[in-house]
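Retro notes
What went well: the complex prediction finally ran end to end.
Inputs used:
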Amino acid sequence: MCGIIGYNGFREAKNVLIDCLKRLDYRGYDSAGIGIIDDKLQVFKEVGEITHLEKEIPTIRGDIGIGHTRWATHGAVTKENAHPQISPNKKFAVIHNGIIENFKKIKEDLEKKGHTFTSQTDTEVIAHLIEDHYNGSLEEAVFETIKNIQGAYAIVVMCEDEPEKLIGARRESPLIVGVGDNENFIASDIPALLKYTNRVIYLDEGELCVVTKNSINIYDKNKKEIEKKKDIITWDYKDAEKSGFPHFMLKEIFDQPNTINQALRGRISEIGQTINFSEKIEKLLSNDIESINIVACGTSYYSGLVGKYVIEQTCRIPVIVELASEYRFFGTRNKSSLVIAITQSGETSDTLAALREANKSGCKTLAITNVIGSTATRITNGYILTQSGPEIGVAATKTFTSQIIVLLLAALKIASIKKTLSSNDIYYYILRLKELSRQIRLILDESNKIIKISEKIKDSNSIFFIGRGINFPLSLEGALKLKEISYIHAEGFAAGELKHGPFALLTKKTPVVAIVTKDSTYNKLLANIGEIKARGPQVIAIADENDSEIEKHADYVVRYPSNSTLLSCIPITVILQLLAYHVADLRNCPIDKPRNLAKSVTVE
Amino acid sequence: MKCVILAAGEGKRMHPLTFTRPKVMLQIAKRPIIEWNLLNAIDAGLKEFVFVVGYKSEMVRDFFGNGEQWNVSIDYVNQGKALGTAHAIGMVERFVDDFIVLCGDTIFGANDIKNIIKTDNSIGIFEVENAEEYGIVETKDGFLVKIYEKMKKPFSNIINAGMYHFNKEIFNYIKKTNKSPRGEYEITDSINQLSKEKKIKGIFLKEWRDVVYPWHLLDANEEILKKIDRKIEGILEENIIIKGNVTIGKDTIIRSGSYITGPVIIGKNCKIGPNCYIRPHTAIGNNCHIGNACEIKNSIVMDNTNVPHQNYVGDSVIGSNCNLGAGTKIANLRLDKKNINIILNGKKIDTKRRKFGAVIGDNVQTGINSTINVGTTIGNNCFIGQSSSVKGEINSYSKIL
C-alpha cells in the first residue's frame, strides 16, 4: 500500500513530484523516492518523511519523472527497498503499489539466468523483467511483463531511451491518469493531483496507459486501444488542506455539520415526506429483500453494526454484518439477500474481494463509498455516495457518520417500501435528521469541556467503552478511535457483558466511558455503572441533556442533545471522536499519521 | 507573437456569482468577460493564445476548446495553486518568446492592444479618478520608473492597467521575485526589477474597464451594449414596440404588448411578454422567461432564469436557474437618495452608486410578494419565502421563511 505519482509536462518534475508525494503520504510513509530523466535517469531515495527526501535531492532539471511513498509489504524499511526500483542496466525505473504473488518464483528464474538483485522487494523483479523484454518499445515490454506477474499491482514505468513517455498499468491496485494542459499525470489517488488538474481518467483492471506531455493512449488487456471518458472532480484542492486546524482529523470532525447535510442533500423530501435515491438504487432496495449482509472492514465495519440495529429496528428484516476478510472465505451467500459493502475509499481490497464473491454467487450488491469512480462503484449493481469530500486523517471521522446517515436513509427507504414505517414515521425521522447538523455544532462548542475530561484519562494504560443496543457498536468505534491515535489500549463492550469476564480487568486505573441513552435499558445501564464504580474506576458518562439522574452515578458527564434513539448515535459519535482526539493531542501523538497505519488499505 | 490571458482567478469579490463559475466566465452582454478580450485581441491581429487557468478551469476549456470557433489557436496552462500574477506569468515560460499579457478580468480595447503590440517592453497605463485600489505608475519621459502597490494617498492618477508586452527576459526577473507583504508573487515586483536595467515604455490606453465587484458588471455591460447593432432573429407578435438597438436571439418569442427600449440584448429561446417593459442596458440570457407586467432595467439576467409575473428588477445581477415568485420586487434606490452599500463576505462596501438593486446567485427561488432591499446579496440555492422581506447578505443554502 503505497502512493504513486508520475509526471510528464513542462514544470520541473522534482518540485511537482515532491509536492504530489506530500499529498499522498497518508497512503503510507516509511520511505520515499523519486526518479527523473534529465538526459540520464537519476534516482533519489530516503528512509523517513518526504521532507527528508526533499532536502537530499540536488537541483535537477528534467520534466519527466516518477515518485513513490512506500509502506513496506516485502522487505524491510531501507533505502535499497524504497522505490523507484531500477533495472540492471540502470535505464528502466519502476514504482509499484501492490503485491506480486509469484515474485519468488520469478526471482529464482531470473537468478538462474544470471540476474543479481539489490533489494528484497517484489518490485525489483518487474524492473528486471521489463529490461529482459525490451525491444525498442517500452509499452510492448510492459505488456509482456504484466503477463508474467500475478497478484496486485499499479505500476508506473519510464525508460532513459524513451524519455518522452510514462507507462502506467494496473490490476487490483488503484491507478488514475490526471489530464492536464501540456502536462499529464499518473497517480494512485486524486488528492495528489488536485492542485494541478481536476480532470481524471480511471484505469480499469488490466488496462495500460501511455502518457506523453500532450497525449494519453489507453489499451485494454488485449492491447486494443480504447476511448475512456474524463471525469471532473468537483473537490477543490483547498478542501484537502487543513484550513487552520492543527490536524486534519480535527478539521474533519468539525466538518461534520456540513458533511451530514451533504449526505442528506437531495435524499430527503420534507414536503413529500419521502426518502429519495436514484431509480437504480430504489429498485435495488425494493428487490424483495429478505435479508441483508453488510460487509466491511475497520471503522466501516462498525458503521455496518450501527446499520444492523437501524435496519432491523425499522425494516424488521435480519441483517448479518461480517468482516469482509471473513465473508469472502466463509460468508453465507443467499441469493435473496442484498449485500451492502461499506468502504470509504472504494478500494479496500478485502471488501472488493468480498464483493466479487457476492457477485459470483448471484447476490445483488450495493456499495456505500465516498469515492465516485472507485472500483467498488464499478463492480456493484449500484452505489450510494457518502459525499463527504476527501478525508485525509487516517482515523475515519466524517466518513463514519456519513456512512451511518446513508445506512439510515437506506433503512428508511426499505421501511417505506415494505410499509414497516408509515409516512408519518418517515416524516418524524426526516425532521429529526434535519436537526442533526445543529446538534453536532452544539457538541463542537463544548469541545473545551471534553479537553478537561481528556486530561483526567490521558495517562491511563487501558480504557473501556460500554453501551447497549445501538450504543454497543459506538463503544467499539469509540475504543477504536482512541487506540488508533492515542496508542492507549481501549476496548468496547456490550454493557451487559462486562460481568461475564472483562470485569477481571477493572482496576482503579481503568476509566470506563459509558454511553447512556434514555431507552428501555436505561436502568440496567445505571446498574452496570454501579457495578463498575464498586470496583473503583472513574466513570465518564455520555448522556442525554434531559437526564437528571446521571450525575449521581458517574464522575464526569458529557451531554448530547435529545433526539430519537436511532439518531442520537451521530452526536454521541462526535463526542467519542473529540475525546479520542484530545487524549491523543495531550499525549503529543502524530494524530494524522499514526504509526503502522495507512488510510486506504489496498492490500489484503 | 502570442497573447497570454490570465484567467485563473476565483474572484472572491464576485461572490456568490463566482461560487459556480470562474470570474472570467461571468457574462457581460451575453459573452464571458474573457471572450471580449479574446475578440478584441483577435481584432488587434493576434492569433495564438495561451490561457493561464486554475479555478474551475474546465468551464473555460469547455467553452473555448482549441479556439477553432474563433479561427485562432488556444493553449492552456494550469496555474495550480494561485500564488500571484508573477507566478501565473512564470507558468508560460516554455510556451512563448515575445508576448502580450492581458489580465483576463479587465476589458481592453482592440486599438490599445495594437499599440502595445507595436512597442517591445511596454506596459499599459490608464488614468482613473480614484487610484487607491490600484498600482500607481511613476513615469519619466514616457518610460516606467516604478510601480507602487495600492497607496492610501496616491500621488498620481496613472495606474497599471494590467496589460504588458514582454519577451523572454522577464522570466529571469520573475524567478528572482520574492513574496510580497500580502504573500503573493507580484508581476509588478518583477517589472520594477526589470525597469532598473531595461527601458519599459508606458502606453496610455483609451479604453479600460476593470471588473472587480458585481456592480462593475453593470458598468461594463452598459459600455458594451452601447456598441451593439439592431439584430432581430426571434419571432415578434403584433403590437410590440422596439426602440433603439436591440438584439434578439433565435427562437425567442416576443409577445404582444412588450415595450423594449435598447440597447438591450436578449438570448436564444426566451419567452418575453406579453405586456412587459424592458429598459436600456439589460442583458437577458438564453432560455429565460420575462412574463406579464414585469419591468427590467439596467440588469443582467443569466441563463434559464425566470422573471415571470409582476416583477420589478432594477440595476441587478441575477444568476442562472432562478425563479422569482409573482410580485417579487427588487428595490434599487434609497429613499434618502444616498449611496447604496452592499455586504460582501461579511464586509460592508460602498458601491458609490445611487441606484443598485441586488446580486442574486444561482438556483434561487423567491415566493410571491417577497421584497428584496437595495444592496442585497443572495447566495446560491436560497429559498426566499412568500411575503418575506430581505436585505444584507444571505448565505448560500439559506431558507428565509
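What we learned: The interface with chain B takes residues 10, 180-183, 195-199, 232, 237 of chain A (CB under 8 Å).
What to try next: split runs per interface for comparison.
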